[in-house]
Write a structure and sequence with these properties.
Blueprint lengths: L34 E4 L5 H10 L3 E4 L12 H12 L5 E4 L2 H14 L2 H9 L2 E4 L2 H9 L13 H9 L7 E6 L5 H9 L3 E6 L10 H11 L5 E4 L2 H13 L3 H10 L2 E4 L2 H5 L8 E2 L6 H15 L3 E5 L2 E6 L2 E4 L2 E3 L3 H10 L9 H7 L8 H15 L4 E4 L3 E4 L4
């Protein structure tokens, strides 16, 4: 997929980014040298752009369909008529996009005013700010919403109440909330669930299988997730190729499972996978969290050379935060000089360090040093007469 192609579908999850969300366009290359997997289908170009602007490389594999979420018009109409057939005592709103899709669909039937008036008579609980925003745009007010944005906290809020005989309407998101309905029924409630849409698997599983191999083989630094269904889809795909245990081990070790919010993170709990998530469930916040988290885990070397900051991470070289591309020979010289920064390394030792094909004579060392100086600055590598070379370490 080219960077110019738009992605329109949103396989929904409660944490997913909303339309109109501001996209940060910072230019700092704070993620240079990091390779990040992206599983989103909606706003994927915005996410990859944010990462690329910061210097990261990305591997995109949609976990779910890139086509718009599937709404079964007949089923939704039947569920809506069931909601309207009798008064509701409680209405549980779970996602902003789910509510908007429901209201927009009902508007097409000419029944929106009737549905809004009906729900306005109920006590409304909302899972988080996105569902609150969707409610208020239609003149509906929530009585309560948890600060955590977790639906589990909505259920905790209801566990201390007597729900006997109460009619509760639950708006589902892309995954079934049948277990939620069962839990409420055990408290005596009469529960009606409204399935607005269902998420679907990615049309082409090939990219996901490739991403699974990259995760399992520890070739990625992090993978981002913007919905709980995406987590489930990745784990299911990994199991189908016999690599789920490898994926779990990778996430438990070196690959950072990065989630946009708490609902997505909760999907990893079943597998014992640690996750990170921003305080606000927003795309920009998730990327900014990676800016802080990944460099803190970086196993590279940072030294001050000729008054400038040199940072090495694998084959990636940053000078004062700007990536410097080195060909294999000067890179090999730099890596050898960094074994003991500031100490002299003999030409013979540098010759041994050069890649095969380059190590023909000490002249090859001189050429590699010259190219290294051209890339980093003439004062970064010092010549020590009759002995060799050393980095001009300062501070």
């Amino acid at each position: 997929m080219s960077s110019a192609e738009p992605v329109t579908g949103w396989p929904a999850g409660p944490d997913g980014p909303e339309d109109g969300e501001e996209v940060d366009v910072e230019q700092a290359r704070t993620l240079a040298g990091f390779r990040i997997g992206v599983t989103a289908a909606r706003k994927v170009e915005e996410q990859r752009t944010l990462l690329h602007r910061r210097g990261a490389t990305t591997e995109w594999a949609p976990a779910l369909s890139t086509q718009p979420h599937h709404v079964d018009d007949a089923d939704l109409r039947a569920a809506t008529e069931e909601v309207l057939s009798r008064p509701a005592d409680l209405f549980l709103a779970t996602t902003g996009i789910g509510l908007r899709t429901w209201f927009d669909t009902v508007a097409g039937w000419g029944e929106l005013d009737r549905l809004r008036a009906h729900l306005a008579e109920a006590e409304i609980l909302a899972r988080g700010p996105k569902s609150v925003g969707a409610l208020r745009r239609h003149g509906l007010r929530e009585l309560w919403a948890p600060e955590s944005e977790c639906f589990e906290d909505v259920l905790d809020h209801l566990r201390g109440r007597d729900l006997s005989g109460m009619r509760i309407v639950v708006q589902e998101h892309g995954q079934s909330l049948s277990m939620v309905a069962h839990a409420l029924r055990r408290q005596g409630a009469d529960v009606t669930t409204v399935t607005v849409y269902r998420v679907r698997a990615a049309e082409d599983p090939g990219p996901m299988f490739r991403l699974i191999d990259l995760i399992a083989d520890l070739e990625l630094d992090a993978v981002t997730f913007t919905s709980a269904p995406a987590v489930a889809a990745l784990m299911e795909a990994a199991a189908s190729v016999g690599r789920r245990d490898d994926v779990i081990s990778a996430f438990q070790a070196d690959v950072v499972a990065t989630c946009v919010g708490p609902v997505t993170s909760a999907a990893f709990e079943l597998w014992g996978v640690p996750t990170i998530e921003p305080e606000r469930s927003r795309l920009g916040a998730m990327v900014r969290l990676l800016e802080t988290e990944l460099p803190s885990r970086r196993d590279g070397l940072s030294v001050a050379v000729a008054g400038r900051l040199l940072l090495i991470h694998g084959d990636v070289v940053l000078l004062d935060g700007i990536e410097i591309v080195l060909t294999p020979a000067p890179l090999a010289v730099l890596q050898r000089l960094l074994v003991n920064p500031g100490h002299v390394v003999a030409r013979a030792d540098l010759l041994v360090a050069l890649p095969r094909g380059n190590a023909s004579s000490e002249h090859a060392v001189e050429m590699a040093v010259a190219r290294l100086r051209a890339a980093l600055g003439t004062r970064t590598v010092q010549t020590v007469v009759k002995r060799g070379y050393r980095l001009a370490v300062t501070g």
